[in-house]
């Protein structure tokens, strides 16, 4: 049987949920962004963070930047350029309010976790450099929630550039997990002039990696990838360059990995 064998703790929780003794945790809206750049000398590279071993969710896994939607991400005060929340709602099968929050969370979390900011002074421009002490102070204020994303953009005279994002996928954490997320996946190209930074926080290592190489490392057991990340990297590996990724036609289908029991062994199976 294909899929991932559940550790004993999750297998016991799966028994409880399947028997109706344990209620599944609610899934929180979240966004994650595969940041891409042209490979050297060709192809695609993607930015990955390794989550600290002490994290409660996905400890030790290599992931894309991302996180939960903050209630303030839905604020209409967020300066916006590009496809509207209505467009994103249609793309992801969500309400406009949820879609607005998802896009804002995607841009905010990407800046918080990589230093990359998908915003600019106008609808046709993008910030060229986000390094420096003042940018770092704002990034940390966003992380500790003492600064709202709308206020961050306003004080710098910036607009969110939703056109720099591409809808990619929709995964929901399996019901067996005690911490669950309803996550929309985006793809975006590293803006010209910007560079990623190892900003610490929830990650203890960052790397630019060819998608196919990351998948192969995971197959060998040298790195840990959760099923959504593994699946997304496998898809990205089929593209010859960033232009190919951006031109890809995507039909967003909600994927919820399921638990199956075979000969007394619980396994997690995803399409």
Topology:
Blueprint: E1 4-5, H1 8-18, E2 27-38, E3 44-51, E4 62-63, E5 66-68, E6 80-81, H2 85-92, H3 96-114, E7 119-120, H4 133-143, H5 149-156, E8 159-161, E9 166-172, E10 180-189, E11 203-209, H6 211-219, H7 227-236, H8 242-247, E12 254-255, E13 258-262, E14 265-269
Parallel strand pairs: 2-10, 6-8, 9-12
Antiparallel strand pairs: 1-14, 2-3, 2-5, 3-4, 3-11, 7-8, 9-10, 13-14
Report on the structure:
The protein is an alpha+beta fold. It contains eight helices and 14 strands. It has helices at residues 8-18, 85-92, 96-114, 133-143, 149-156, 211-219, 227-236, 242-247; strands at 4-5, 27-38, 44-51, 62-63, 66-68, 80-81, 119-120, 159-161, 166-172, 180-189, 203-209, 254-255, 258-262, 265-269. Strands 2, 3, 4, 5, 9, 10, 11 and 12 form an eight-stranded mixed beta sheet that branches. Helix 2 (85-92) packs across helix 3 (96-114).
């Amino acid at each position: 049987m294909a899929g991932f064998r559940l550790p004993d703790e999750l297998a016991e929780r799966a028994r409880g949920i399947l028997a109706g003794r344990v209620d599944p945790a609610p899934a929180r809206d979240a966004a994650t962004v595969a940041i891409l750049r042209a490979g050297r000398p060709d192809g695609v590279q993607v930015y990955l963070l390794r989550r600290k071993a002490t994290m409660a969710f996905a400890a030790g896994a290599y992931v894309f930047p991302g996180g939960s939607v903050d209630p303030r991400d839905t604020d209409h005060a967020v300066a916006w350029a590009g496809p509207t929340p209505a467009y994103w709602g249609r793309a992801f099968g969500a309400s406009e309010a949820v879609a607005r929050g998802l896009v804002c969370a995607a841009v905010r979390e990407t800046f918080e976790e990589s230093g990359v900011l998908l915003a600019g002074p106008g609808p046709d421009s993008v910030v060229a450099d986000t390094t420096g002490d003042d940018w770092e102070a704002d990034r940390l204020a966003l992380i500790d929630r003492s600064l709202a994303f709308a206020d961050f953009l306003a004080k710098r005279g910036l607009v969110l550039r939703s056109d720099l994002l591409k809808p990619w996928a929709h995964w929901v954490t399996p019901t067996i997990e005690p911490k669950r997320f309803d996550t929309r996946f985006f793809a975006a190209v590293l803006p010209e002039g910007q560079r990623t930074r190892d900003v610490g926080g929830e990650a203890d290592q960052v790397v630019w990696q060819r998608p196919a190489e990351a998948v192969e490392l995971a197959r060998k057991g040298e790195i840990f990838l959760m099923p959504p990340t593994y699946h997304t990297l496998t898809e990205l590996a089929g593209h010859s360059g960033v232009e190919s990724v951006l031109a890809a036609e995507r039909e967003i289908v909600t994927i919820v990995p399921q638990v199956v029991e075979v000969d007394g062994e619980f396994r997690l199976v995803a399409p």
